[in-house]
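2024-03-11 09:14:02 DEBUG pipeline.ingest accepted 1 chain
2024-03-11 09:14:02 DEBUG pipeline.ingest length=892
2024-03-11 09:14:03 DEBUG pipeline.predict start
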Amino acid sequence: MLSFRTQAKSTPAKRKLLPASLRIRPQTLDGAYNSVEDVLLSQGTAEQGLSDREAKERLTTQGPNEVTAMGRVPLLWQFLKNFGNPFVGLLCVLSLVSFFLGNIQGAVLILVMVGISVLMRFIQEFRSNRTMAELRALVGTTVTVLRVSDRGESRRQEIPLREVVTGDIVILSAGDMVPGDVRMLSTRDLFVSQSVLTGEALPVEKFETYQAPSRRTRPLGREDPTEVSNLGLMGTDVVSGTGTAVVLATGDATLFGSLTKKAIAQRALTSFDRGINQISWLLIRAMLLMVPIVLLLNGFSKGDWGSSFLFALSVAVGLTPEMLPVVIAANLTRGAIAMSRNRVIVKRLSSIEDLGAMSVLCTDKTGTLTIDRIILERHLDVLGNEDDEVLEYAYLNSYFQSGLKNLLDAAILEHAELHETLRVSDSYRKVDEIPFDFGRRRMSVILEKQRQHHELICKGAVEEMLSICSFARLGGKSVPLTPQLVSQISEVRNEMNESGLRVLAVAYKEFGLEDVNYQYRIQDETALILAGFIAFLDPPKESTAEALTELRQRGVTVKILTGDNELVTRRICRWVDLEVDRVLSGSEVEAMDDLELRQAVVSISVFAKLSPLQKARVISALKMAGNTVGYLGDGINDAAALREADVGISVDTAVDVAKECADIVMLEKNLNTVVDVVMEGRRNSANIVKYVKMAASSNFGNVLTVLGASAFLGFLPILPLQLLVQNLLYDISQITIAFDPVDADEIARPRRWETQSIGRFMLFLGPISSLFDLATFGVLFWVFEANAVTKHPVFQTGWFVEGLLSQTLIVYMLRTRKIPFVQSCPGGPLLISTVIVMMVAVLLPVSFIGSAIGFVPLPSGYFFWLGGILSLYCLAVHVIKKWYLARFKSWI
């Protein structure tokens, strides 16, 4: 599926017709300038739409409506791009150097390590991509098109976005994604957000006819396509209004398709990406520091610069965590599959890690704190008395509107008995509509009543409705809307708000036969007669209070960002035990500069009457204050906030634009599910950090040992090839760490990548292994007299076995802050892989493979000493672990 999180901005790089960042097919621009008849003819279609057979044939010819760079990637490219990993590239260079220095075995072994790393990462990514494709199919975006049946009947039909073809006639309304580059055929107050392409926050209006700009900056045919008034572009979304359009281009042929590579390149790194990069460079810097020292010490002390250089290269390989990409891919894939069992679909894998780091969750009120099922509780006149006529006006408005019907409309339309009472089909005919938008916060329909007059019926937010009303209906009569009456009306509204009811106002206006027209505009919403109120109840979920408490206990602060008013929001928050000291309104947010807002958002938990852009601005301020922010939303007004958040969360019932902007889609809108996915993200992050800390400290300890041995031994403590084998076996034992359970106290708080913590862990734990390596050297040197030239292979074999056993065994000590096996047991896969590698460590020296790379059988007495050294090592690590925890208050 497409992902529209990136906001690409145009640049002035020139090409023949248009700037390079705004490439668009000439045929598409021609479609903007030509007549509707010519456009339909050129596309081989009609206003009734394509036939099912023709659409199927075009889909076969054109392929799915997907952007290649964001859709399916060829398998060969998936495999080859894994060689672009910095660690893999480093190993390939080291292999070439070894080959030219004559160390053929070492070069081959390094390539084997590269091959294993690349192959395993490819397998993980292939499985991940396949899993993601299957999961995304569950939340696919659909498009409404006109299709002609075999009997010649034109009908509306919902089809997956990827099945849209050129020539399709699409129906657009609020919340829809524009499914391709399209030419408008008809529009009604159609406003489209193009921020995904232009970065501009404000929506632009689209028309059915081309309207030349008042100040033309470019010749006809060379215009910026985002400024062409009758073109809709793929990836943009409808904010308000309705329209029909013909599809001119799909997939890669669209403007969005031409921008994809540039947009992906410009995408900001997430906190997870930044953390991985920092760790990678930390290890690379350590390697660049240590390897020259090892080379110089061995070269000067032994005089064999060729062997010393090969040994230094082996140390470089030993410091390279080439399995890091594999471990990350395995963790993220396992996390995505685990989340799918909780009916959660992950669209962007790295968002799992962002979930683990999330410290603030922002959410809308409706459907999150509440049951997402609106009940129409009251229909009252302006003084608060029951009035059936108010409900009748509201029913007509909701029934005839063609835009996005929300939960409030659904609650009104449940009164289906009014359809017969009002004789809707016989007495009313729809003339026009003024769609909803977030600036006006209201919408109107214009009906012809019994062919006698036109009647404008408007419903919307109370404040905005009062601003356009001049009269009120009392006792069946229209009276002027005096300040005293407005005060009484406000009291009625406030009383209902304080009871937790959401209130809309309903007003109307009649046009006599001499005043009617068939093109009504916003300007006609004036001097209306206020009929009364309709009040809705959205009861809180029983599980909400418990989920909010659990999130707080887990270190996640919940903040409410809603377009509803303060009184209703306060009452709902009290129902779910969410403390509210102060509510910040949208107007207050608008009046603050960035610094003031950043300071305010830290302490305030509830924001009311926010516009879509104000929601995004609050999230941006929270991020600037140092938080990792998630946002849960499902409406058109949530799209900007979902894009701005570190991790966007939506639901399967959300409007198309919300699902496309989200990183994670839940099949059930439930805060308890959010708790589950947050904990899964923390588990994934913890296991990745486990691998990094264990690998970094182990490799650092090995390098310190090598430095000590290079300074005092007259021979290499281990051959280059043997060191490579040791590193390979250790990395293989760690692949299963993705399936290791994580202690509850390690995931009790949000997890953020801290390079400083990893570096500190490496510096404190690494030297401990070096001390026991040196103890092993002492045993081999003095007890078994392996310092003699003839016994150098015994020394090298002994350190190989001790080094691999200590590295692998210590995994059990480092994976938990608790006592291993007593208070915390490793997962089955990790236990099996580490035990197998330890068995290989003991048996390899007596095998023909071990003999081929320079190993010899060890004296049986050595294993007695080895058992004591390893036992003391584990005890020492446990003591250091207790001190480290007391000193730094953290472990993994």
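2024-03-11 09:14:41 DEBUG pipeline.report The two ends are 35 Å apart (CA to CA).
2024-03-11 09:14:41 DEBUG pipeline.predict end
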